[in-house]
Amino acid sequence: MITRWLLAAVLLSTGDALAKGGFAAAKPKKKAKKAPTPAPPLPPGLDGVPPVSRFEVLNKDGVAPQFTGAFLIEDASVSDDLVKEFHERPQLRGMVSNAGGGAPVVDTSVKDSLEMSFPANDPSIAWRRYLLGLKAAMGLYLEDYPYAGAYGAFSITGRTNVQLYPPSGGYKTFHTERTGKGEPEGSRHLVFMTYLNDVTDAGGTEFCHQNLVVQPKKGLTLIWPADWTFTHRGVASPSQEKIITTGWFNFT
Fold first, then answer.
1. CB 3.0-4.6 Å disulfide test: which of 24, 27, 112, 125 passes with 169?
2. Which domain holds residue 138?
3. What percent of the chain has pLDDT over 90?
């Protein structure tokens, strides 16, 4: 009796995995993903890494704040070409999320800007040249702060924004780049921002806890940790527009 019961149990369990007609159901084959088409090489003369140098920024006490990296992409055409791409692509009004994680809304009392964004794999020459300069700046940052690269791989995984602030515009309230565990904010590691024009009538970036205001200079690139310790805001210029590109390095 035990043998017959075991045989019946085996037949029943096997039958659960059989298709009609007694043949095992074939698992559908997954379609192979097509590899992305590589971007063509950059044109001769534009394929080299733009010169990048360290740049000193001092707070109101005359001290260079720790962990705020400042680097100058010296070739002005890198910034100028990004500005040209910005004006040639569709733009949207800048949006902010209200407290409590609400849906993003346009609120010019908080943020007054026009924006577009580059995907990480954007094929444009302007974007790819900027990435070469940004990579060089990040290399210098890691020389200064090697432990920033010691805890896991990171890269640009999302879109990088280009933001134009009109006179009296800006991201006017203090904010930080990571406010919770939800993605993509939760895995943000470092922030980068490059000024794409000179501003001489106010218009800087104020870092609350560092007692620091950085004045925009074309090509000046800032890198800092994405935490509340680097809470910051834009200082509006009453007479000049400001244009920046900014994004994040996320842990991968």
1. 112
2. 52-251
3. 71
Instruction: With respect to residue 193, please indicate whether it lies within any of the assigned structural domains.
Output: yes
Location of structure tokens 């590691």: 189
Identify whether the C-beta of residue 237 lies closer than 8 Å to the C-beta of residue 216: no
Contact 162, 245 (CB under 8 A): yes
Q: Where are the beta strands (DSSP E) in 66-197?
A: 69-73, 92-93, 111-112, 114-118, 154-155, 160-165, 170-171, 188-195
For residue 94, the model assigns a pLDDT of 80
How many domains does the chain fold into?
Answer: 1
Structural contact between residues 96 and 105, judged by C-beta atoms closer than 8 angstroms: yes
Q: Is residue 40 part of a domain?
A: no
CATH code, 124: 2.60.120.620
In a domain, 87, yes or no: yes
Specify if 5 maps to a domain: no
